[in-house]
Amino acid sequence: MLDVRLLFSCLTDADFLDTEAHFDGEAQGKRHRASGPKLNVTQATTALDAFMLSKVHSMSKADKIVLAARNALWEVVSTTARKEPGLFTLTAPTGSGKTLAMLKFALEHSAKNGLKRIILTVPFLSIIEQTAAIYRAVFEGFPNNFVLEHHSLAGLGSEKVQSDADSYTERARRLLSENWDAPIIITTNVQLLESLFSNRPSACRKLHNLMESVIMFDEAQTLPQSLAVPTLAALSHLSRAYKTSVLFATATQPAFDALDGAITKIVAAGWRPIEAVSDHANLYDALRRYKVRWPMQGKTETWSTLAEGIRNEKQTLCVVNLKNHAAALLEELKHDENIFHLSTNLCALHRRTVLDEVRNRLKAGQSCRLISTQCVEAGVDVDFPVVYRALAPLDAIAQAAGRCNREGRLSDEGGNRVMGEVRVFEPAVEGDYRKRYPTRAYFQAAEVTRGMLIEAGAAGLDLNNPAIFRDYYHRLYDLSRPETQNKELTEAVTAVDFVRVAKEYRLIDQSAIQVLVPYLAAIETFEDLFRQQDEEGINAQWIRRAQGLAVSVYRPQSNHPNLIPAKLRYGDGVSDEWYIFQVTDEGRYDDVFGLILPKSQQIYIA
């Protein structure tokens, strides 16, 4: 099926480009647009090395041990980059410099094997702009669209162009993003993986440009178990048949090789990646920057008790499993002027503003207490001396711990290096897993953690030991059996049913809708978008602007008093995906809590 999609990609992209050339042409005939810039690995590698020397090493305030570990990772990926195209993993602790080390690997691997393109895919929009900003800084001065972002926030604000030149550049960016005609692409798991299983021309037309490329997955542990086997099978075939290298990078590397038997039944190559950091255990040991305090068996903490402990810390992060848990804890801390909140209840612009303020306070040594859901864990660059984490899957706890003493700079009054502290707690929440965890799969993984913790005893689990995570994932896969999940997708693949495959392969629940919210700091943009949809209706340009002020919620079963469907630009109908939030006595958008819906009409945030 993937072979067919790649042929389909060549055909549909050629058709799109030819049609575009026809309509852009004049009396002299068709006018084809210029191709995107090419990957010049020599210049790109020189720019990356210069960036590391002038920006990272010289300006870093990280502890010398942390810097030494980052240098070690930098050197070892160069060695692995000399290998032939294939499947790779990069296992390294948080704060070890994976973002730039991955780019180093990709550039040198491309130079060795004549690869044409580098694609970085990340799981969450909350971290994509952070990564994109680093890449743009590395390649400052390179041709336009040398680094091409393809995600829903990429066009945010770009409609307010200042000149014809700006307008032309933006149009070129959008055209190139349609078929990924650029040397370096930054995108999301949803965009890349769902395209690999799509049946639509617009999604498939870029797939042929995955050939002879390096595809890097950051925070690889976020791949849903229910999609693991078909996803890994597709990537394995893409690698073997089309000279494409795939790299899975994370601090908590899933033991996907345990699924090799199930994957081999689909593609003969199976899943047998090469580890880029062969002695990563020593790297973890060198980067011990925190100690973990595990909860005693059976001991729980109320939100009020937990709030008291948080108040006693000048700078602390607390990560909980559910948004209503965050709300309950925030209620206990509502009179604290130094409290901040991050969750998907907040629109993207709001989350960005909160993170900027939190980072500024941490840097200045000011009081800062952040209550967050899991959205802060994967890849978000913050550095707290103390981190609280509700009991969760082991990889989630480790990701939260990666926000503790990230730069290794903590010291006592005598200037001696000290450890940060991660405090794992069990919230005093009664009821079944739905009141304690976001999904049943999350609950199962948390129970595996609990079982391992009981076996380990008072000493707890060593989060700086990669062998612990292999054991954890093997236990989890034995319990959840990913190869038996998602029978509908398996049947559709077996039947070579492209329409059903596209329908069943979804990383995000399709029952979600987008709600435009009146975030106070961007109220003028909200009012302008509201007016535009009311007078003209919405189109693709409107949606790009609206992404930063949108909150995803699961579709309500009936009309909701706070949600007004947006008008469509073409036709007389209204959108069934985009809604405008209408403030009422019970429902509002709060500057701390984000979207608050009336309890009598409660619907869930996606």
Q: Please, could you describe this protein's structure?
A:
It is globular, with a radius of gyration of 24 Å. 45% of the residues are buried. It is built from 21 helices and 19 strands. The protein has 3 domains: 2-25 and 45-284, 3-Layer(aba) Sandwich (Rossmann fold), CATH 3.40.50.300; 289-463, Rossmann fold (3-Layer(aba) Sandwich), CATH 3.40.50; 512-601, no CATH class. The protein is 42% helix and 15% strand. The chain starts with a helix and ends in a 10-residue tail after the last strand. The strands form 4 sheets. The protein has a 7-stranded parallel sheet with strand order 3-4-2-5-6-1-7, sandwiched between helices. A 6-stranded parallel sheet has the order 8-13-12-9-11-10. With 606 residues, it is of the alpha/beta class.
Keywords:
six-stranded parallel β-sheet, globular, 606 residues, Rossmann fold, 3 domains
